[in-house]
Each structure stands twice: as C-alpha cells, then as structure tokens.
Amino acid sequence: KMAFYGESILPAGLRVLSTARITFEDDAGVCMAETEVAEAVSGKKLAEARITVMKPNDAHIARMFG
Known about the structure:
Layout: E1 15-26, E2 29-39, E3 45-54, H1 58-65
Antiparallel strand pairs: 1-2, 2-3
C-alpha cells in the first residue's frame, strides 16, 4: 500500500492549480513523487515538490535524484 506523508507546505495566499504524481518501481523498491503547482494572488506560478520513498534504498535514490 502506498501513501503520501506530510502536509502541503504552500505559503498562505496560494491555491493549488494541479497535482502530478509519478511512480517508479524496480527491484530496489518503490519511489513516488508528488508535485503541486500553485498560483499566487499576483498570478505568478511556483512549484512545491515533495518525494516519499517507499522501501527506501539510499544508493538507488541517489542514482535517481542525486
């Protein structure tokens, strides 16, 4: 079973426009990433991303994201 941990850390005054989720799996384990795109009052966009690692393998993660 896969789940996201933690809350969104978007600053006050922003609203989420869209969320993208990516899953990658091989013999080293499962990685899942989630990115939120938000819009500020001014209309400018910024992104906040967090990565949750299921069955972590440090060497594998370093190859993917390092």
